[in-house]
C-alpha cells in the first residue's frame, strides 16, 4: 500500500500549488475528493457484494444439508411405519372389525344437548323490544326512507 505521512502530503500539496496555481487548486482538490469518495463507495459496494455471495453460498450448502437430513428422517419414518403396520396386522390377526382380540367396541360418544350453547345464549324477544335492540335487519336506503321528513312539514312543526 502507499504510505502517506504528513510530510509527503505537504510535499504533494506544495507541488500541486506550484503546478496548478492558487486559483484552480481548491476546485481541483474538491474534484479529487469527490472522486476518492466515489472510489471508496465503489470498493465498499464490491466488498459487500462479495460477502453477500459468500453468505448465499453458505446458506445454499446449509439448505442442502438440512434437506438431506429431512430426507433421511422421512425415509426412516416410512420404514418404521411399514414395520409398525406389519406388526400391528400380525397382532390383530384375522379380526375384520379392527379391534384387538378380547376387546369390546363401543359406539362414539355424542353429547345429548347438541346445540346447548346456542339455546342458552339466545336473548328473548321481549327484552330486545324493551331495550330497543333491532330485531330485523334493514337496509340503509330503507332506513333513510323511514325517517325522511314528510313533504310539506317544516322543522319544528308538531303536526
UniProtKB/TrEMBL annotation:
Residues 120-159 are annotated as: Disordered. The keyword Cell inner membrane applies. Its main location: membrane. Pfam families: TatA_B_E. Gene3D superfamilies: 1.20.5.3310. It comes from the Bacteria. It is a single-pass membrane protein. Keywords: Cell inner membrane, Cell membrane, Membrane, Protein transport, Translocation, Transmembrane, Transmembrane helix, Transport. It is found in: Cell membrane; Membrane. Part of the twin-arginine translocation (Tat) system that transports large folded proteins containing a characteristic twin-arginine motif in their signal peptide across membranes. Together with TatC, TatB is part of a receptor directly interacting with Tat signal peptides. TatB may form an oligomeric binding site that transiently accommodates folded Tat precursor proteins before their translocation. This is Sec-independent protein translocase protein TatB. It comes from Polaromonas aquatica. The gene is tatB.
Amino acid at each position: 500500500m502507499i504510505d502517506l505521512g504528513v510530510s509527503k502530503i505537504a510535499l504533494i500539496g506544495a507541488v500541486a500549488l506550484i503546478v496548478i496555481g492558487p486559483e484552480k487548486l481548491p476546485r481541483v482538490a474538491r474534484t479529487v475528493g469527490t472522486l476518492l469518495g466515489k472510489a471508496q463507495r465503489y470498493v465498499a459496494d464490491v466488498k459487500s457484494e462479495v460477502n453477500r455471495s459468500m453468505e448465499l453460498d453458505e446458506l445454499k450448502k446449509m439448505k442442502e444439508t438440512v434437506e438431506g437430513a429431512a430426507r433421511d428422517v422421512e425415509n426412516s419414518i416410512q420404514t418404521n411405519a411399514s414395520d409398525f403396520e406389519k406388526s400391528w396386522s400380525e397382532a390383530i390377526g384375522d379380526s375384520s372389525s379392527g379391534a384387538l382380540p378380547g376387546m369390546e367396541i363401543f359406539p362414539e360418544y355424542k353429547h345429548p344437548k347438541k346445540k346447548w350453547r346456542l339455546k342458552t345464549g339466545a336473548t328473548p324477544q321481549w327484552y330486545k323490544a324493551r331495550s330497543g335492540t333491532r330485531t330485523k335487519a334493514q337496509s340503509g336506503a330503507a332506513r333513510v326512507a323511514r325517517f325522511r321528513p314528510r313533504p310539506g312539514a317544516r322543522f319544528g312543526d308538531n303536526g
